[in-house]
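Example S7 (structure tokens).
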């Protein structure tokens, strides 16, 4: 059995197409897991949903931004924070416009119910008995700090405690990593879009499993960042400045130095 596992597409169909093409170059897969953050922030929220739901044997979880679209929650800053810290007003306004724009697309094109019904997690037991958990941020969570390189071994152990799994696969932080603590193997996929790694590549993973063992291969894929910038600008996207910073390598994470 072979699965392609990806997350954090964020409305970027150009990056998604590059990843899907790479999957086929690697020989294809038997199924797909897509672990949330499908539409919000990017230039093509519905195009992404149309592509992923057309994939064979695909399973999905929700991410925090999928939940924000449906519930009206926001990642911050809050109105109260902006009132006391005026430099946050522009950020708050951009977020409000961005999510309102995406919500309008989702509602108008009939994807609201699909997004609202996404589950928190996917579970699978391989033929060799290995229990696999796919979730957006961390076991039991679609939000929060997630699994990132700055976690100590004890912090990672605590984050994985609710997993009830041998292999945990997450996204959310946009930073790829692979670690083990006790008997749990954890892989962070990184992200398809909005890269924070120096190469600015999309990342995803292939899981190959047989009756004896499994192998994980993390893949890094080039795509046309300028084409994404032009697509964002063409539609006068309300978060143009924020999104193009990722495409131009202006949002590299300090974790890249760890």
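Recovered sequence:
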């Amino acid at each position: 059995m072979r699965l392609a596992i990806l997350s954090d597409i964020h409305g970027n169909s150009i990056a998604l197409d590059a990843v899907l093409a790479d999957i086929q170059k690697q020989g294809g897969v038997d199924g797909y897991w897509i672990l949330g953050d499908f539409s919000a922030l990017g230039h093509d929220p519905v195009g992404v949903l149309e592509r992923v739901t057309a994939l064979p044997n695909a399973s999905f979880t929700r991410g925090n931004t999928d939940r924000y679209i449906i519930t009206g929650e926001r990642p911050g800053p809050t109105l109260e924070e902006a009132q006391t810290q005026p430099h946050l007003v522009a950020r708050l306004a951009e977020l409000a416009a961005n999510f309102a724009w995406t919500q309008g697309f989702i509602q108008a094109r009939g994807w609201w119910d699909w997004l609202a019904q996404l589950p928190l997690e996917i579970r699978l037991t391989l033929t060799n008995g290995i229990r696999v958990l796919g979730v957006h941020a961390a076991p039991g969570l679609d939000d929060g700090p997630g699994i990132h390189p700055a976690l100590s071994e004890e912090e990672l152990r605590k984050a994985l405690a609710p997993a009830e799994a041998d292999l945990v696969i997450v996204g959310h932080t946009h930073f790829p990593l692979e670690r083990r603590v006790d008997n749990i193997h954890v892989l962070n996929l990184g992200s398809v879009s909005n890269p924070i790694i120096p190469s600015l590549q999309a990342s995803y993973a292939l899981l190959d499993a047989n009756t004896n063992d499994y192998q994980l291969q993390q893949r890094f894929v080039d795509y046309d960042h300028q084409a994404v910038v032009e697509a964002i600008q063409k539609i006068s996207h309300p978060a143009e400045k924020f999104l193009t910073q990722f495409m131009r390598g202006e949002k590299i994470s300090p974790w890249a130095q760890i």
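Notes on this example. Strands lie at 2-6, 31-34, 58-60, 121-125, 131-135, 167-170, 177-181, 184-188, 202-209, 214-221.
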